[in-house]
Amino acid sequence: MGDFFEGVPTELPEPIARGTATYRPASEQPQPVRHVGGYERFVEFCTRQGVDAGELAADPIGLFRFLRNFGKDVAQHAVLKKAATVFAGNTLAKVRPDAKWKAYEGGAPTVGTEELHFEVERLLDGLNNADDAAVEGLIAKVSEWAQGVPDPPMIQPRPTSRPTDRSYVRPALPVDTYDSEDGTAIPYGHRWGGDGPDPDSYSVNSHPERFTGLHLVARTLIDYLADVYDVEVHEDKALAADMMIEAREVVAAVKLTPRISTAASLTFILTGYPGVVVHAGVLHDFPFPVCGCDACDETVLTEADRLERLVLSVAAGGYAERYPVGRRRWREYALTAFDGSGSESGKGDPGPIDAARLHEAEVRLRDVQDGWRPWPLRRG
Description:
By secondary structure, this protein is of the alpha+beta class. It is 31% helix and 17% strand.
């Protein structure tokens, strides 16, 4: 088998759970998957047609035209079609250094970048079934994407640990048991085995009251930050307007603004769900819980962990934002844990945000291109 793609072939990446944030210790960050194994049958098929598979691996447009011509033959054999799908995905990953395979829970694998990704099996079906105009449109789209230049990597913020007279302590949270319809206790946090969630559980939100303790955690964090850091504290439900997303059933809203302009403010919105949404800096909201449905199986403890990590990391200077990113003018954030245990990041379309607010954010972020600064400590 020729060296068509970079590195040693691997398995598909571990599926990402939908509706959750991915946070891993730095030592456990997964390596990007750019070369998946299992395409030998397709290479043999190419050879029988008198075509060099190595040339196709270096030319995605040539590969697409080949699959257009021989798609019906490939589709007749499940094993061959699967091999062709893997080969096509590897070819797309080879085009750009920032392209990689991804897999999502309950969905088909994709290949691409944050800007554009392709569900490869559907792409092959389209090459086989679409009319000529649609195929040429697809080829033009892939050609444009292949010529794109990856965005420069975002700075990874480095939080600053400074001694204080008081450490944050989580309040005692109520431990309650919730029963299913048959009277058995629901083991939230451990509901699903290796087969994943029940498909019907994605639309079920049976006991949202299990998140009530997040209000207590948020209030404790607010009190701690106001005691330790030099910040202005303002409480007013009208502050819900800070959110990039609509916050429903606002119970309370509190904004903490550090007394230096290069440190990110935090706005806490306590909702009637019950839950908490935190607006950090200028362009990002973080909901707790992210979803709350039975499939996601979140608990008050896992969400308290996430809430505390975000808030304490922002205060420590472990938070950065960037806008606009690339030709699509996306927004982006990066978070490094206050204790250095891990990191997370996200990028996406700003959505229906007022143009004036986006411009204001763009101007403000020019002053913090290396990340938001640590909050100043309260004197005395």
